Amino acid sequence: MSHSAPGLNYLNHAKGFKSWALSLDHKRIGVMYMVAVSLAFLAGGILALLVRLELLGPGETIMGPDAYNQSFTLHAVLMIFAFIIPAIPAVMGNFVLPIQVGAKDVAFPRLNLASFYIYLIGAAIAMTALVNGRIDGGWTFYAPYSTSIGNGILWVTSGVFVMGFSSILTGLNFIVTVHKMRAPGLTWNRLPLFIWSIYATSIVQVLATPVIGITVLLLFLEKALSIGIFDPALGGDPVLFQHFFWFYSHPAVYIMILPAFGVISDLMGTFSRHQVSGYKFVALSSVAIAFLGFLVWGHHMFVSGQSAVSSIVFSLITYLIGIPTGVKVINWVQTMYKGSVQLKSPMLYAIMFLFTFSIGGFTGIMLGVLAIDVHLHDTYFVVAHFHYVMMGGNVIAALGGLHYWWPKFFGKMYNETLAKIAAILVFTGFNVTFFPQFILGAQGMPRRYYDYLPQYEGLHALSTYGSWILAAGLFLIAGYLIASFFTGKKAGLNPWGALTLEWTHTTTPPDHHNFHDTPVVTRGAYDYHLAGHLFQNGGEVTELDLGGDGAGAAPEVAPLSHEPAH
Amino acid sequence: MANPHTNQPAHVKHYFVSSEQQFDAAKMGMWLFLVTEILLFSGMFVAYTIYRSWHPETWAALSTALDWKLGGLNTIVLLASSFTVAMGINQIQRGNQKGLLINLVLTFVFAGMFLVVKYFEYSAKFEHGLFPGAAFDPHGVSHGFDYATYNVPYGPQFFSIYFVMTGIHGFHVLVGMGLFAWITVKALKGRFSAEYYTPVENAGLYWHLVDIIWIFLFPLLYLI
Q: Which one, of B178, B171, B175, B207, lies nearest residue B88 by Cα?
């Protein structure tokens, strides 16, 4: 337990490649994940831009149909397995979760580092499909088509299997950390909502991911040995594959969206300067969503030939998910209504999220309606819905979280004006890209098609123009964030005046061991009514006495003295 | 042995506040991992259930191709190994390092025996073309029995499921042997005591799961 010298933090306490590559520090692992996940997002994003460019006009624009099919497939595989699933949990969860629970690290730091390398290996294996044979059936790998194409499927299924391990290990680590390593006084009712949502996410990761593991393993064997489990030509059942696949992949969309809910809750509390309304409801609705998420996979299969009774039951349970989700959205709006909203750039993303995610959520319920789904199934409407919840939900929230925690990560402020411009570009570009796709889908444009009738040209072109605006916004963000390393103002200890432990009880950037002394928590994560005299209602705090000798500027959250904890 | 900075025993990592917290965390992590294992196998049990209910006559005919005597022997071997690993944990809880070592070695030997029996079972199947999936081609006569009679519709699927399920189970046995080898080396160095035996406890939990899965596989594949 070294009391590090002033100025030393997790970034500079040790130098050199090995001190990073072999680091067991959850913060460094989080930063390494950030780099890897950003590269996956960049690669997937470039593929998306190419796909949109191809769809600018009917007929061949920049690539042939085979290249197009492979591009959208790889776009989806990269974005889903290599980007969205790890994005918030593995980057922000890794960095923030142990500090928010007042621990010195996650419960299993070596597993944590292992999960990072397993993720890298899995992503690399999946990427080799690009050169090892075509893989063009879409990210759902439906048998028997997926086993009838080239050997690329062997690589992609292996990659997904390996990345699944990484996801399980991360989830397992977080569950144990939240259960066993909370600081004294940090009861479940005082946990930041970000923790609650990561916790719910982790449960889904641990319970659902093994099923995709066995599914892709069987698919691998189907291709390699023709075992005849899924291929109807060999006596297998392709609908069984769809059941297996969606038993994971539906809960997986909650792996993608639940962490986003957590980020938004933290942003809403912090930038509304108000206790998040209905704290317990918001917290438990995450768990409710995680639970219900396991019971709705059949709504992807309304036209697959499953029984009408199954379809009706799956449809009804799908409506139920709207309830806990609605509880969250209403409580966030209530928090803003009761609070005093500060329109800093992270909050812009939180507000954006309310619009884009709500559109995504409502259209999801529309798609859960049996009669409507038969009309909209496999059209651009589904594509638009999916991107409104995944990009409009997860990515927007991830950007909000990134802007919120960036000063904590690296101790530098970014250019707030550019951040606001970028936020507006992202919001505009996103809606211009994906809203026309709802209309295209309702008019009957099928998803995944290389070519289309001239009547769809206008909306397709609009969607492509939107993708350029969106890309401009995202590149602008990358630009000013990187620039902040060189020209950014030094971040204060608590630039947002937030009340969770990562802002109140550690340095910026955090100390290598997070805390000099284990914190003792005596209040909730969003007790902003106590904050008036502490943080001048959100005014920037540059000096906060974190000395080990006393409570310093945060009397409600006194650090424990040198006594061994309980 | 105590860590001078934290006043904790040396085995306690710096990010834990106590030995109990570290033990509880490790054990909870192991239980969660076992849940994922059950879910991994659940997919195969679902596939088994569906194909069995669709083609009961194939299942009835081909389960006789599996040698219930060898399967039964393996069941006894695995049960014995579960007993020895439980005894090992019991011994180290009482601080008996020698008792732990003996039981670890016995467990390792039983696990090896299981795989040896499995090897003979598999090679007998391969010899007569009882392969999974497309390679399925039963042929040859042994002890007056013509294997070609196993050439029934959906036979390849039965053997696909048999080999996939027992193969993945066998892989888990192999991993278990690796675990016990590693723990035996640590036990030889005297790393475990009545105060610290977390890896033994967790490897034992894992091993019981491997055993339980076999307890289900044996009757489902060999007996019914």
A: B207
Q: A531, A82, A85, A20: which is closest to A272 by C-alpha?
A: A531
Tens digits of per-residue pLDDT, A279-293? 999 999 999 999 999
Cis amide leading into B199 (omega within 30): no
Name the residue of chain B whose CA is nearest to A212's CA: B40
**Is the Cβ pair B29, A173 closer than 8 Å?**
yes
Are residues B133 and A213, on separate chains, in Cβ contact within 8 Å?
Answer: no
| Confidence at A537, pLDDT banded by 50, 70, 90 | very low
DSSP string, A315-331: HHHHHHHHHHHHHHHHH
Chain A residues lying within 8 Å of B41, measured CB to CB: 214
Q: Do A564 and B35 touch (CB under 8 A)?
A: no
Q: Measuring CA to CA, how many Å separate A297 from each of A128, A141, A162, A246?
A: 30, 16, 23, 5
Which of chain B's residues have a Cβ under 8 Å away from the Cβ of A1? 5-6, 14
d(CA B216, CA B101): 29
pLDDT the model gives residue A542: 45
The CATH number assigned to the domain with range B19-223 reads: 1.20.120.80
Residues B124 and A140: their CA atoms lie apart, in Å, by 38
List the domain boundaries for chain B: 19-223
* Token pair belonging to A242: 């769809």
Token pair, residue A141, equals: 């790998």
* Chain B residue whose CA is closest to A2: B5
**DSSP-H helix ranges across A443-555:** 457-487, 501-504, 532-535
Residue B119, token pair as written in the block: 């090897």
A204: amino acid identity, one letter: V
Cβ-based contacts of B172 with chain A (< 8 Å): none
Q: What is the pLDDT of residues A489-513, one digit of tens each?
A: 999 889 998 999 999 889 989 999 9
Is-contact B186 B199, C-beta < 8 A? Answer: yes
Q: Whole-model pTM?
A: 0.91
Q: Could you say which residues from 171 to 210 on chain A have a Cβ atom under 8 Å away from some Cβ of chain B?
A: 172-173, 175-177, 179-181, 206-210
Distant-in-sequence, close-in-space partners of A205: CB < 8 Å, separation ≥ 6:
A89, A167, A168, A170, A171, A255
pLDDT at B4: 57
Q: Could you give the residue ranges of the DSSP H alpha helices within chain B?
A: 19-54, 56-62, 68-93, 97-127, 155-188, 198-218
C-alpha pair distances (Å), A303 with each of A26, A234, A374, A375 = 45, 23, 7, 10
Considering only CB atoms, which chain A residues are within 8 Å of B155?
none
Decide if pLDDT at A517 tops 60: yes
